[in-house]
Amino acid sequence: MGNGARIYAKNSNMVARKIAGEMVLVPIRQSVGDLASIYNLNDIGGRIWELIDGKATAGQIKDRIVEEYEVAPEQAEADLTEFLSQLEHMKAVSPVTPVQSAS
Amino acid sequence: MDCEQIIELGYSEFSKRIHDKAAGNRIPINGGIDITSRCNLRCAHCYIEGTSTKEEHELTYEEICHIFDQIADEGCLWLLITGGEPLVRPDFSDIYRYAKRKGFIITLFTNGTLLTPRITDLLKDEPPFRIEISLYGITAATYERVTGVPGSFQRCMCGINLVLERKLPLALKTVAMTLNKHEVHDIRKYAESLGVKFRFDPIINAGLERTTGPLEVRLSPEDVVALELADEQRANEWREFCDSSLVISGSDRIYTCGAGSYNFHITSTGDIAECIIARRTKFSILGGKFHQGFYEAIPKVLAQKRTRYSECMSCPIINLCGNCAAHGELEHGDPEAKVEWLCQVGHLRVAAFKAGRPEAAKA
């Protein structure tokens, strides 16, 4: 996975709400999104959002998705990459730089 | 795995979908809260002014935050912050920020007179879905005849300008009454010149404790309908409504309007209510009892049945008059009572907006 080592953190200015069984992303600041549109995550999208914690790599998240859902690893990887790219574009997440351990 | 993990919906489509789901499952997605009953104005039509709620315990910041925690957990997404005048609270900014961080889609009702550069900068930084400012006149004389406070017109206009300068999502509205009916049209023109939404409400109800002061400035039913006829958009909305929504309720329930189904209101003392003016539930949610209030206390009120026959039960224009349990309670202390003034407004609306009047609507 090309970007499998990347780690993402949620933007604290985007709040995820579970409403009537649906996951919704609500921006706090205007720059984060446009309330003329609402970002609605589907079931797997909501699960990925939960797994983004600033520590897990994209590869680890993909592995959890493959474990929990009936999806081929290649498909999961492609979809996850696209999903993370969308979230990054919305400024809902941003990549974090892992702390380098001294060797 | 579905590759469309994010579905970007238009707001209307999203709102309708969630409301449909919430109505079917009775999820409290729509909430309102009076963060205070106090106000810096003394409006002639106000249903809170002169009531004892102003003297009672007002929710503290911590209590409001706890309420926000509870209603967010229960699924509230749309939150109306109102009062009283919300901005009389010195901790308004803290309350607003906390609400934003809970992920509510916020509408703020304000009279605009206490808006400052600091407050509007906060609203710019963390925008609400909408700010609705009440503008009671287009001249200082009329506006202040309504508000009873000299200098308040200038302060309201300053507040509107602060909001406009920051390009915040503003809507203007007014309550039409005897004191300002001659300026309602001009207020609309002013709103249109600014490019902001406008609506007027001609329905004035008695005060929360049956205080009758507001009724003294109520328009005559003829004036209500004349104003609606003069407003092209409003008139068209009523014509469409008359063509599609005249139904006989037939229900023996006191509450037939949908109050308390997926919406609720929290008073400035921490009671849960069915809606902003129907406050029969009188159940304190302080101490973490929102769930109990919404799922136990409100349904008990909504389940109440009429104890006597009412002509409203078989009236085909009940949707046109606005008669409801709250109005009966406020005006007569009896949720089953009909408010005659509303009934007259309803019949005049039929005459004005419906082609071919239904039999029961004839005088």
Task: Describe, in plain words, how this protein is organized in 3D.
- The complex is a heterodimer of chains A (103) and B (363).
- With 103 residues, chain A is α+β, with helices and mostly antiparallel strands.
- Chain A has a single domain (7-92), classed as Outer Surface Protein A, domain 3 (Alpha-Beta Complex), CATH 3.90.930.
- Chain A is 36% helix and 24% strand.
- Chain A has helices at residues 43-51, 58-68, 73-89, and strands at 7-10, 14-19, 22-27, 37-41, 93-96.
- Chain A has a 3-stranded antiparallel beta sheet. Chain A has a two-stranded antiparallel sheet with strand order 1-5.
- In chain A, helix 2 (58-68) packs across helix 3 (73-89).
- The longest helix of chain A has 17 residues, at 73-89.
- The model of chain A has no long low-confidence stretch (mean pLDDT 85).
- By secondary structure, chain B is an alpha/beta fold.
- Chain B folds into 2 domains: 11-219 and 255-304, TIM Barrel (Alpha-Beta Barrel); 221-249 and 308-363, no CATH class.
- Chain B is built from 13 helices and 10 strands.
- Chain B has helices at 11-25, 61-73, 92-101, 117-125, 140-147, 152-165, 184-194, 221-230, 232-244, 290-302, 318-321, 325-332, 340-353, and strands at 6-10, 30-34, 78-82, 105-110, 130-134, 170-175, 197-201, 263-266, 271-273, 283-284.
- A 9-stranded mixed beta sheet of chain B has the order 7-6-5-4-3-2-8-9-10, covered by helices on one side.
- In chain B, helix 2 (61-73) runs parallel beside helix 3 (92-101).
- Chain B is globular, with a radius of gyration of 21 Å.
- The N and C termini of chain B lie far apart (63 Å).
- The A-B interface holds A 15-22, 24, 26, 28-30, 35-42, 44-45, 48, 65, 69, 71, 75-76, 78-79, 82-83, 86-87, 90 and B 1-11, 14, 18, 21-22, 25, 27, 29, 72, 75, 77, 100-105, 124-127, 129.
- Strand 4 of chain A pairs antiparallel with strand 1 (6-10) of chain B, so a sheet runs across the interface.
